[in-house]
């Protein structure tokens, strides 16, 4: 997985962010388990039925995105998921790897947004 600091976007009020181009997926605040996270992403991103509800399956889906017709996808987090430190790191690594692969291989544009107040925590998790 891609382990350098990813190109995430940080905004003051993610819940108020308006994106005009491409598909927009909002990850709601209040997610407290990886199961809740997988379910929210499965439903909101319309993952294929074969999605396995685990980190490898999430990585596969986010690095493929073949079922999404739009070229640009904006994944907007209304809050930073309240996962265990290890699960947070895994989630951030999956997101970072997906952003990196889509950027380098010019597959699609994947923009990942988090609230500004989660930036220090995100960078801390990724630096471990």
UniProtKB/TrEMBL annotation:
<dbReference type="InterPro" id="IPR000468">
    <property type="entry name" value="Barstar"/>
</dbReference>
<dbReference type="Pfam" id="PF01337">
    <property type="entry name" value="Barstar"/>
</dbReference>
<dbReference type="InterPro" id="IPR035905">
    <property type="entry name" value="Barstar-like_sf"/>
</dbReference>
<protein>
    <recommendedName>
        <fullName>Barstar (barnase inhibitor) domain-containing protein</fullName>
    </recommendedName>
</protein>
<feature type="domain" description="Barstar (barnase inhibitor)">
    <location>
        <begin position="29"/>
        <end position="100"/>
    </location>
</feature>
<comment type="similarity">
    <text>Belongs to the barstar family.</text>
</comment>
């Amino acid at each position: 997985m891609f382990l350098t600091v990813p190109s995430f976007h940080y905004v003051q009020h993610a819940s108020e962010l308006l994106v005009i181009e491409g598909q927009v997926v909002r990850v709601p605040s209040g997610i407290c388990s990886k199961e809740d996270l997988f379910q929210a992403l499965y439903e909101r991103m319309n993952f294929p039925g074969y999605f396995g509800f685990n980190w490898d399956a999430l990585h596969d889906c986010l690095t493929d995105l073949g079922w999404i017709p739009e070229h640009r996808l904006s994944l907007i987090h209304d809050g930073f998921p309240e996962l265990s430190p290890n699960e947070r790191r895994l989630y951030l690594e999956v997101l970072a790897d997906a952003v990196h692969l889509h950027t380098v291989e010019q597959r699609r544009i994947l923009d990942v947004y988090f609230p500004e107040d989660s930036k220090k925590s995100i960078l801390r998790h990724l630096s471990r």
